[in-house]
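hey so u asked for the seq, here:
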Amino acid sequence: MKRFCLVMVLLAAGVAMAFAAGELKVNTLTVKESWPLSEDMKEYAAPEFEPGVSAMIDMPEGRSKLAVAVAKWIAKSLGVEGLDLNSADELAQAVVTKLKREQADVATEFTVTKEYENAKLVTFMISGYDMAAGAAHGMPYCYGATFRKSDGKEMSDHLIRKNARLNTLLWRGLKEHYGVKDTELRNILNVNMKTVTMPSTSPWVTKDGVVFQYGAYEIAPYAAGMPQVIIRPSALTPYLTTEGKALLKK
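ran it, structure tokens below
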């Protein structure tokens, strides 16, 4: 009996080690840099306004298919695709250079985080806030991507069937997000249950389910924020692609 228990313990340890070996490791880098406001914008900006970038970036380690796929997605999302970026430092420097050149009078804050990982997939998320000199308010944003670990394929656009209509599920999720009933929700949003569609950004997977993230102004006024709907895979089963079902199957 003791020998059997020992074998079971060793097997369990082996499974745990196998998963740990398959984990996508990241290097986290904090970036903070500022630069002078242009002369043309000084009369429009508040006295304390300071252009620059403040960021925290999870950059995948190694050159595996998965690591390279995630790194390319991060670079493309931050507008520095096409460069051979092998580290978080190189990525950060490329972003700072781009912002200085193209958005010199903007203060940018963002994070790139490894949001979720299991044996089949890994999800990265980018969220941030851009504030232009002289603007009445800044613009927040949030989007993510889920990658299949077996081959590094970005799965966000391959989870839900193209003709799927998720109106009822999305409406129910929006009510939960705001904590209101139908009538109150109609007063908040610029859409109703019949006209609500999936967000312009692709969905991604977290431990709680599949995330549908709306942007500022997309279906609601700025003051109503960026509503987020999380739907459990079991509720989405009829609308999933074959690849989506395989990826989300426990």
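Residues 1-21 have pLDDT under 50 and may be disordered. Residues 2-21 form the longest helix (20 residues).
lmk if thats what u needed
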